[in-house]
Every structure is written in structure tokens, then in C-alpha cells.
Amino acid sequence: MIVRKIFENTADAEFVREAWNVPNCRTVLCTIREVWKDGQLLSCEKRYFVSSLDAQVVVPERFLEWVQGHGQIENRLHLIKDRWGDDDRHVLFRPGLGEIWSALTD
41-99 pLDDT, tens per residue? Predict the structure, then answer.
């Protein structure tokens, strides 16, 4: 069984905005994914996010849907590009060309 939880924190958003220079941060999110089998916790994964959306307007369940949707994009699109397009195997030897190549092929 997989259990997903999300926690919003608007109080720390000001600290993130000021200390880490994230200008539009209005909400800090923590997602927890627990995998249980036969009553025993097998794994627990925490991930943190910042959002420019106001937590008073967006319900936590919607934030969780967006986080899961982002993971689907990573798994479906980027995995295919890496595997079939061999994006990870391309080697450039001149300094600066890696960033240009990455922008052109993304």
C-alpha cells in the first residue's frame, strides 16, 4: 500500500523568499510517500517544493496532483528522450558547447 501526504507551510515562505532569493515563493510544500507491506514500512521518501501559488486559494489535494503530474512528465518524456535520443551519451569537448547543445535539443 502506498500512502501519500502533503503539508503546506506559508510561514517559511518569507524566509525562502528573502534568504534564498526566490522572489515569488508564497508556499513551501513537503510531500511524503510511504510504502507499506504487511503492516511494515518499507520506504519513506520526502520531497520539498516551493510554489508561487497561495495556499489559501489552492487546496492541498490539488498541489499533490500537480506534484504527481510533474513526476509523470519526468518519467514519460525525459526518460524517452534519454533512452531513444541518446541525450545522455552525447559528448562535447569545447567549453560552453554543452549548454548550447542542451538548449538546442531540449
Answer: 999 999 888 889 888 888 888 888 888 776 666 666 666 666 666 655 655 666 776 67
- Residue by residue, DSSP assigns the chain as -EEEEEEEESTTHHHHHHHS--TT--EEEEEEEEEEETTEEEEEEEEEEEESS-TTTS-HHHHHHHHHHHHHHIIIIIHHHHHHS-TTT----STTHHHHHHHHH-
Using an 8 Å Cβ cutoff, are 26 and 53 in contact?
Answer: yes
Residue 49 contacts residue 16 (beta carbons within 8 Å): no
What are the boundaries of each domain within the chain? 2-105
